[in-house]
């Protein structure tokens, strides 16, 4: 397989019919660069042309067939050889023969299912692309064009607030509240921290957004934690009865929707991590999952009819279940102990810094 | 579907704070001072003791004020007990300064004023860091170190539980009254 390889005699290009009207979206590539790609939604038709331009008009191009494919695949970085294709459509454009002059072949993939959002992460990539192939005896001529897919949801019917009393027995008791459990990507997290008992010397408090990418199954599960945001919400020592407000605008951060068990290959989940730091740099934290979802934009006249339908489609995210997890919440890897405290080291703690999980005290 | 132009970012309602909570003493008062180093004994048998004074309103401590004299090896004992029994990462002590204990030094060795001051500071940092640690606060060894006149090295290690009632210095259960400073 060669991409404009050695002694290529033909230029292949893939062009979309609605290239002028279709929106583009920015998407990060594997090496961190941002590029713009045509944006599609689930159910939209993908139609266009594959154009062949002979470099030497006098030279004929012999081939074993020309086809175009629409592919959606998941690629795990530690297992690059195996691509997991969850969407694979093909259209044959020409039977084996000759191409004597530059020409274009029309194609249309009607109402293509695109069940997942495009995602480029630390250990896994999910992408959609068109691939045009001119089969030849020695080496095929291949041209790929990536597109980006967004999955849209609408305002969830059930979106309860998260309210919990947590702490360390006899040392620190707080009640935290977040106004929702499901936030869209341009939403605002509004909440508060209420101090019930403060017997330690707190220096400051921050809230972090943590993205956890999980790949693999069974015994080979791997979590990659990434702190997307750190936002200080309090500087100084609080006393009992004080209420600290939280207002965190999500639009300023690079976030994706929550992706759960995509094709049984990976998950991307988000957590709010509330961290209190005392004057000896000890850290006390409470992590809470929040569901992020992508809201459809206001329908514009320039959008294609199908995109308009897609953005209004009432496709909710998979039901979350209880916003509050029952029982004492612990991260994987915590040492469960019957003592009043649970000590755990997370990515946060470095060197001698000690980190403690705040345990749930009672249902608020 | 119509879109609200601006998200609702108004603060969540909260209870107004009680004024006695707002202006009263905080519940986390804990101060330990190490001062007044004194060298006792003669010749080879000399050693330095430091006064360890604690003031607190934390209910876990029986005495709200206590004052004891401790020497460096007592701090070492406490460090070892905590490393063995508690789950905390015990902070480092100031150095043992073995070199200073060798003969034929030009100065006073471990009884040099500047060294004693350096050590005093290190011990103060050490004890404050430990006493404020939620996982160390219920260790018997810490309470004995801070609030009992003498350290009983044959004690039974274990955990202390907070008293239900607040006990100011001189409570009946304590046969360990506040130790007054010996006059020099």
From TrEMBL, chain A:
InterPro entries, per database record: Arrestin-like_C, Vps26-related
Entries under Pfam families matching the protein: Vps26
Similarity comment: family membership: Belongs to the VPS26 family.
Record's compositionally biased regions (Basic and acidic residues): 337-346
GO cellular component: cytosol; glutamatergic synapse; late endosome; phagocytic vesicle; postsynaptic early endosome; postsynaptic recycling endosome; retromer complex
Domain of life: Eukaryota
Record's protein name: VPS26, retromer complex component B
Region annotation (Disordered) ranges: 310-364
Provenance organism: Bos taurus
Annotated keywords: Protein transport, Transport
GO BP of this protein: cellular response to type II interferon; intracellular protein transport; regulation of neurotransmitter receptor localization to postsynaptic specialization membrane; retrograde transport, endosome to Golgi
UniProtKB/TrEMBL annotation, chain B:
Alphabetized InterPro entries for the sequence: PX_dom (IPR001683), PX_dom_sf (IPR036871), Sorting_Nexin (IPR051074)
Residue ranges annotated for the PX domain, each copy included: 28-152
Keyword Repeat: no
Keyword Protease applies: no
GO molecular function terms attached to this record: phosphatidylinositol binding
SMART domains attached to this UniProt entry: PX
Key words of the record: Acetylation, Lipid-binding, Phosphoprotein, Protein transport, Transport
GO BP terms, alphabetized: protein transport; regulation of protein metabolic process; regulation of protein transport
Region of interest (Disordered), ranges: 1-20
CDD domains named among the record's database cross-references: PX_SNX12
Family label: Belongs to the sorting nexin family.
The protein's name in its UniProt record: Sorting nexin 12
Native species: Bos taurus
Phylogenetic classification of the source organism: Eukaryota, Metazoa, Chordata, Craniata, Vertebrata
């Amino acid at each position: 397989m060669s991409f404009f390889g050695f002694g290529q005699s033909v230029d292949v290009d893939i062009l979309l019919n609605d290239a002028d009207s279709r929106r583009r979206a920015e998407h990060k590539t594997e090496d961190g660069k941002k590029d713009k790609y045509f944006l599609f939604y689930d159910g939209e038709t993908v139609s266009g042309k594959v154009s062949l331009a002979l470099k030497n008009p006098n030279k004929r191009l012999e081939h074993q067939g020309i086809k175009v494919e629409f592919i959606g695949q998941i690629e795990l970085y530690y297992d690059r050889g195996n691509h997991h294709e969850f969407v694979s459509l093909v259209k044959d454009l020409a039977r084996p023969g000759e191409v004597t002059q530059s020409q274009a072949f029309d194609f249309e993939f009607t109402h293509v299912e695109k069940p997942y959002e495009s995602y480029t992460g630390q250990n896994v990539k999910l992408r959609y692309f068109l691939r045009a192939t001119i089969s030849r005896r020695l080496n095929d001529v291949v041209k790929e064009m990536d597109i980006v897919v967004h999955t849209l949801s609408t305002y969830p019917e059930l979106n309860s607030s998260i309210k919990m009393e947590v702490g360390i027995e006899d040392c620190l008791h707080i009640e935290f509240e977040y106004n929702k459990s499901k936030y869209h990507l341009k939403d605002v997290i509004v909440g508060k921290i209420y101090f019930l008992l403060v017997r330690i010397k707190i220096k400051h408090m921050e809230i972090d957004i943590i993205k956890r990418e999980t790949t693999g199954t069974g015994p080979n599960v791997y979590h990659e934690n990434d702190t997307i945001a750190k936002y200080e919400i309090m500087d100084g020592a609080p006393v009992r009865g004080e209420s600290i407000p939280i207002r965190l605008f999500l639009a300023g951060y690079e976030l994706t929707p929550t992706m759960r068990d995509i094709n049984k290959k990976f998950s991307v989940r988000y957590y709010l991590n509330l961290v209190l730091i005392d004057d000896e740099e000890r850290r006390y934290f409470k992590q809470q999952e929040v569901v992020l979802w992508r809201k459809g934009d206001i329908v514009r006249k320039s959008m294609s009819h199908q995109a308009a339908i897609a953005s209004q489609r009432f496709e909710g995210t998979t039901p979350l279940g209880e916003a509050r997890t029952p029982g004492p919440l612990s991260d994987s890897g915590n040492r469960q102990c019957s003592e009043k405290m649970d000590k755990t080291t997370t990515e946060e703690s470095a060197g001698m810094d000690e980190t403690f999980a705040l345990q749930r005290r009672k249902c608020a | 579907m119509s879109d609200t132009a601006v998200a609702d970012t108004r603060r969540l309602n909260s209870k107004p704070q009680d004024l006695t909570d707002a202006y009263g003493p905080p519940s986390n008062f804990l101060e330990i001072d190490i001062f007044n180093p004194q060298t006792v004994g003669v010749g080879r048998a000399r050693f330095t003791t430091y006064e360890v004074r604690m003031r607190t309103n934390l209910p876990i401590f029986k005495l709200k004020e206590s004052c004891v004299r401790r020497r460096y090896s007592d701090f070492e004992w406490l460090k070892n007990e905590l490393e063995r029994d508690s789950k905390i990462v015990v902070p480092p002590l100031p150095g043992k300064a073995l070199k200073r204990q060798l003969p034929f030094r030009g100065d006073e060795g471990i009884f040099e004023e500047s060294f004693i001051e350096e050590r005093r500071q290190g011990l103060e940092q050490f004890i404050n860091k430990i006493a404020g640690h939620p996982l160390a606060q219920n260790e018997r060894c810490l309470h004995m170190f801070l609030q009992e006149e003498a350290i009983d090295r044959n004690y039974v290690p274990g955990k202390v539980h907070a008293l239900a009632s607040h006990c100011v210095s001189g409570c009946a259960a304590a046969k360990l009254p506040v130790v007054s400073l010996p006059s020099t």
